[in-house]
Amino acid sequence: MNARSEVQAFDAADYAGAAVPSGAAAPSGAAAGTRPAQLRAVQVTKNFGGLNALDNVSLDLRPGEVHGLIGPNGSGKTTLLNLLSGYYQPTSGAIRLGEDDLSAAPVQHRARAGIARTFQKPRLLPMLSVLENAVLGAWPHARSGFLATTFALPWVRREDQALLAQATELLHGVGLGHVLNRRANLLDHAEQRFLEIARGLAMRPRFILLDEPAGGLTPQEIEHLANVVRTLRDSGIGVLLVEHHTDFVFRVCDRVTTLNVGRMIRHGLPDEVRLDPEVIRVYLGA
Amino acid sequence: MTTTVPASKIAGLVFGALLIATLPIWAGDQYQLHLAALIAVYWILIAGLNLVVGFTGQLSIGHVGLLSIGAYGFAILAGKAGWSPYAAMLASGALGGVCGLLLGLPSLRLPGFYFAMATMAFAMIVNELVMANPDLTGGGVGLPGPLFPAPFGTPTGFYYLVAGMAALVTWLTWNIARRMWGRAFISIRDNPVAAQAVGVPVLRAKLAAFVFSGVSAGVAGAVFASLQSYITPDTFVFELSLFFFVCIIIGGRGSLIGPLIGTAALTALPELVAPLAKLGNLFYGVLLLLVVLVVPEGIGRVFEIVGERLRPREVHREPVSPDLPRLARALKERA
């Protein structure tokens, strides 16, 4: 019994944190005041044993922008993404959301703080439907405690309906409206990628980190993805795009950061980065 | 898909309810009624355990320990201490929940295999403690399990009591399974990394499922003691724990109806079909082997496969084409 009330209290406490308005133009800075909160990596270094995966890299992700992160394999892109989303903790440096230091915060805490992510290899629940996979993303906003759910109290039912309705809208929005009830293990690759994005959006995030979302997509599907990413940006979400399809990156990003062997080699507007001799030398090729 | 229940399912549910409600009328003899009550008692425990094993994917093989605690709690409180059996049953449930919490708090942090070992050790410890305290538990001699007062004192009355309780537990777990908590449980089972990414508090969620199963096991223990009318440490052998586990695995993970069928079939078959009774554990073993090798998703999957053969479902592909205005609207409404 004790555990259940604990769980419920826990839910309520989360909510106080997660209920910060995360809208587009609305100043969503948690404590900072007028400037909307940024998600920042401040001079982070990450060592794995003797391997220096990231060396003193800084990056700031603003609400309502698409930020590209490119670089050769092994340059530390995914490591940085894992630091931002909390799967790793920095060896030195800090991860900040607005004024809050998230460096040591666990993954779940970042989800509640409004940071969503997708994975290089989509991580879905194979036996659940598309709709149920997407609505799982609404977990940070589900207030129903375990005990209330066992008895299916009226407001628990209402909340579940509301979350399902919202996920349904998002799925129609990203183009999966025709497969709402299909089991996730029957989806093709592109559908899985878009479903992961929909699940991330169900978290109503302030920032979404996309790990190679264009991997394995056809040119036409990449075009759809670009449109979705622009729509996210226009609604005020900050999008971090870790990607190898450089055309796609330079087309949709507002700013681009390039990494090479754990160091930042160039950061700036897409055209600046594209024409940088060092970037061309190590990554883009002549 | 979770919002509406198809008519065929409702029809099945009504038919099943009628079958259960009229069972004392068409059951051949007292023994069959006893068997039906035993299935209901087992199901009270297994329904809760199903949330732990079938949904959350935590392989507990120690629930016989919790059953034993509930049974002895009931026998001591309703027998020696003279409590009303109803109060004693509630106390057994609470005791099972507390023990579930105490067991789950350290052990649910362990990865799969080690968790299973911890629960097994728990079951063994419980049996040793029962043996070591003969003043309280009767030791090897055991304790009588008191009957419930009228109208539940007769075999038929008792059957209705446990059938009603089984239905209640089923309803509770069904409520969990089809809402956010159930999805969170399945995410812990199928993809813990994704579960964390969406903010599911993994340990707390496991603990919630485990404490629930502790309460249901405690309550099941109380009615089990009453049904058996006498309990000894030999009643709570470790094989019983494996039996609960096997019912769920054979029935299918992530389903309610599968484990229910598994429980009914595995309890009744060896009793009703005499040759199987001789084989005993061999029957369970072979069945488990067959299921794990041929249909790892459980027997429920067999019906699905047959259904798909009879009526091939065409998966028609359509390109993903986003509806951007709708997406923008959905994103705006989120605040």
Summarize the structure.
Helix content of chain A is 41%, strand content 21%. By secondary structure, chain A is an alpha/beta fold.
Structural description of this entry:
- The complex is a heterodimer of chains A (about 290) and B (about 325).
- Chain A is of the alpha/beta class and about 290 residues long.
- Chain A has a domain at about 35-115 and about 210-215 and about 240-285: P-loop containing nucleotide triphosphate hydrolases (Rossmann fold, 3-Layer(aba) Sandwich), CATH 3.40.50.
- In chain A, about 40% of the residues lie in helices and about 20% in strands.
- Chain A has a six-stranded mixed sheet, sandwiched between helices. In chain A, strands 2-1-4-5 form a four-stranded antiparallel sheet, with helices on one face.
- In chain A, a hairpin with a 2-residue loop joins strand 1 and strand 2 (about 50-60).
- Residues about 1-35 of chain A have low confidence and may be disordered.
- With about 325 residues, chain B is mainly α.
- Chain B has a domain at about 25-240.
- Chain B has helices spanning about 5-25, 30-55, 65-80, 85-105, 110-130, 135, 155-175, 180-190, 190-195, 200-230, 240-250, 255-270, 275-280, 280-295, 300-310, 325-330; strands spanning about 145, 230.
- Chain B has a two-stranded antiparallel sheet with strand order 1-2.
- In chain B, helix 2 packs across helix 8.
- Classes of the chains: A alpha/beta (about 290), B mainly alpha (about 325).
- Chains A and B meet through helix 1, helix 3, helix 4, helix 5 and helix 6 of A and helix 4, helix 7, helix 8, helix 9 and helix 10 of B.
